[in-house]
Amino acid sequence: MTIAEDYKGQHPAWCPGCGNFSIMKSFRDAMVEMNIEPHKFTIVSGIGQAAKFPHYTKCNTFNGLHGRALPVASGMRIVNHEHLVMVFTGDGDCYGEGGNHFVHSIRRNINVKLFVHDNQIYGLTKGQASPTTMEGMKTKNQPFGVFSEQLNPLALAIALDCSFVARGFSGEMGHLKELMKEAVQHRGFTLVDILQPCVSFNKINTFQWYKERVYHLDGSHDAEDRVKAFEKSLEWGERIPLGVLFRNNRPVYEERIPVNESGPLVKQGFDIKKIEQTLKEFY
Amino acid sequence: MDYTIKIGGEAGQGIQTIGGTLARLFARSGYHVFTNQDYESRVRGGHNFYQVRLSDRQITASRDTVDILVAMDQASIILHEKELSRDGQVVYDSDALKQKYEGLHFFDTPFTQLAVAHGGQKIMANTVAIGSVLGMLEMEIDILIEILKTTFRKKGDDVIQGNVKAAEAGRNFVLKYCQKCSFTPAVRSKPRMLITGNDAIGLGAVASGLKFYSAYPMTPSTSIMNYVAGKEEEYGIIVEQAEDEIAAINMALGASFAGVRAMTGTSGGGFALMTEGLSLAGITETPIVIALAQRPGPATGLPTRTEQGDLQFALYGGHGEFPRVIFAPGTPEQAFYLTNKAFGIAEKYQIPVIIMTDQYLADAEWTYDRFDLNKIHYSDQRLRGADLQDFPDYKRHAFSDTGVFPLGVPGDSTHLIVTDSDEHDEEGHLIEDSETRMKMMDKRLFRKVPHIHEDIAPPLYYGKENADIVLTGWGSTYGVLREVVDVLSGTRSIGMLHFSEIYPLPETEKFDYLNILSKAEHALCIENNATAQFARLLRTETGYEFKGTILKYDGRPFTIDSLIKEIDDHSGRL
Lengths: 283, 574
Fold this sequence. Notes:
heterodimer, A: alpha/beta, B: Pyruvate-ferredoxin Oxidoreductase, domain 3, seven-stranded mixed sheet
C-alpha cells in the first residue's frame, strides 16, 4: 500500500493560499486509495502554474510545451495503452493555447485523464484574461473589461460527446478526491474541470465567491442523459453544479486500433527479416 | 536505347495510371527507368504530365526532348509538341480531343473506339493508350498482361480479359498503321525494382523499426504517410493523422518518450508549425525523425511543385540552441539508407534528425537491381524492463562523458522517467541556477556534437580527378548533376561534389572537399532555390565562397539539356 508521502516531489513554488495545494492533496489521497504506485503512471503537462504539478509529485513526467500536453499524452497512450497517462493543465493552457487538441482528444476518446485547474485567470503571466474569465472583468491587458463571452468547457465537452465530464472545486477536497478516482477508473477520455481561486490575480472569483455558489448534483441528475447534462452544464452564476455531469461508454480510441490487439506497441518487437519480402513489392 | 515518353492531360484523366503502368512495365523488362511528374494543385482539370524515360544504361534524370507524346488533351499538344525529338511521335485520339492534327509526327489512334470494340468498355481507353505505346516501341505484350492481371485482380476475369483485349487492340493498331514509328527496343533483362523517393523514405523507416508515425497531410510529404499506413498491420506500426502539425510532432515525441521509434513528416508550412516541437525534442533529448518534403514557398507557394528553399529554415528553425542532424538524399537509394541512418543517429544521440526531400525526388521513380539489407542497421538503444530496473539510481538526464544517458521506458521499472521543456537537473526537474544550466547546455551540445560529427559521411565525388569544372549540389539535384557530368566528360574536364549529409557539415579531415573546390577553375554551386542556401552554409561553416552559382526557382526541376546550356554559358563567361 502506498501512503501520501510516497507522492511527495519538490517543494511547491505556488503562492500561499493557492487552490493548487488542495488539488494536490486530493490527488495524493485519491492515488493512495487506489493504490497506484508513482512509477505506474505518467503526468504530462504544459505551461502554467498547474503544469508544475508533476514536479511537486513523484511520478513519470513529461512537462512539455504550452498547450501541447494532450498530443504528447495521446502519443504515449497510443503506443502504450497499459500505462496510465494523466494531464494536469490550466484554463489558459488547455482551453486557450491548446484548444484544438482539447476538441480532437475528446473526439478520439483517447483514454487520458484530463484535470484542468480552472481559476479563470492567467496566473503565471500575472493576471491576464483566460478563456474562462467572466465577461466584463477588467485586467491590466483588458482595461475596458473582457468583451469575449466566457468559454464553457463542460458544455463544449458534452456537445462533443466527451466520455466523462465533471466539475470539482478545490475547496471541497473530499468530493474532488472521489471525482478523481471516478475519472481514473472510467474507460475513456475524462475531463475534470476544477474551480479554484487565484489568490493573487482573480479578485472576483474568490474562494468565498465559489463557496457561496457551488452545490452537489444529487441522485436526481441522470449523467447518461446528454441533453439534460448539456442543460446542467449551462448553469453558472448564482448556482454552479459540482459532480459528474455526463458520462458515456464510447469505445476507447487506442483499444480500437487493430495493431494494439497483440499488446502495447512499446512491448512489440521488430523483425528486420520481413523487409526482404516487402522489397519484392517494388519489382 | 534512350527514349522519353510523356503522357499529358487533365487531372482525373488517368495520366498517373498510364505513366505508372508504363514505368512498372519497363522496369520489369529490365530497363533502367526514370520518371518525374508535374501536376497542379487540383483534383480535376488543369494540365498535368507524367514523363517516363527508359534506357539500357543507368539514367538518373529527365531529358528535355520527348520521343512519344501521349496527348490526352489539346493542351498537351500545344504545350509539348515543341519538345518532340526528330523522330518523335504524338499519339492521340482525334475523337476524344475533337480535333484532327495534320503532320507526319501525329498518329491518330482511336483509343475510345478500340476500347469499346475490343474491351467492351469506354473506360479501357487508357489501356488502349498503353498498348499503343508498346506498339510504337515494338515491345512484347506479355509483361503488360501480367500487370493488368494484378491490377484488376479484384474486379474479376471479365474486366481483366477486357483490358487485355483493349491493350492488344492498341498495340496491333499501331503496329499495323504507324509507318513513321521507328523505335526499337533494347534486349530485355532481369526485372529491376522501381521506387520513388518518398516510398524509399517510408520503406527505410519501416526497415528501421518505426512504430509510430503522426502527421497532418501536406503535399509533397503525404505519400510517406500513405506508404507507412499500408504497412501498419504487417509490421505493427500505428499511423495517426493529427489535427495539425503541432499535434503531429508532439504526439511523435510522446510516443518516443513512451519507448518506441517515432517519426513525423511534413512540408515547409507544416514544419513552421513544428518548430516549437523541434526545440522541445532538443531540450528533452527525445529522439525523433522528421521528413521535410520541400515545395516552393513563401507561404502556400506552389503547392505541387519543387524547390530546395528550406535548407536555411531546417538549419535554424526552432528557438534556442540544440544539436540537430540534417540529411538530404539525392536518390531513392540514398533516401532508404539515410532514413535508416537518421533513426540510428536520432536514437544514439537523442536528438532530432531531419530528412530533407522535395516534390521532385518525392515523386520521381528510379530503378535499381536491389537494395542491400546488409547495410541496414537496427539496435534498440533504450533501457527496458529488468535492464532498467537493475540500473542503480537512474536519472533521465544524468551527465556523462558523451552527453548521452540511456532512455528508460516509463512504467517498465520503479525508476521514474522525468523530462521537462524547462531547463532541468539530472533527474529532469526544472531548475533556475546558472551552474546546472551551463552543465546541461554543455551536455546537450558540446559533449554530443564531436561524436555526431564523427558519424557524418563525406560528400560524394564523381567524375574526373582534379577537374577544371566542379559542380556542387545537395539533395535532389544528384541525378541531373551526374548525367551532366557523364555527357560533358567527353569534351570537358568535369566532376561533381554531392552532399547528402548536410549538417553538421562533413569534416574535411577525412576528405578534403574544400581543396577540390579551391583547385577547380570553375566551382559552381547548383541549387533549386533563389539564394544559394547551401553555398551560404558552406561559407558560414568553412569560409569557402563559390564564385559561381546556377540557381533555379521557377518551381521546376533542372533538366539535363538546359543545365548543360547554363554550365556552358557560365564557363564561357568566366
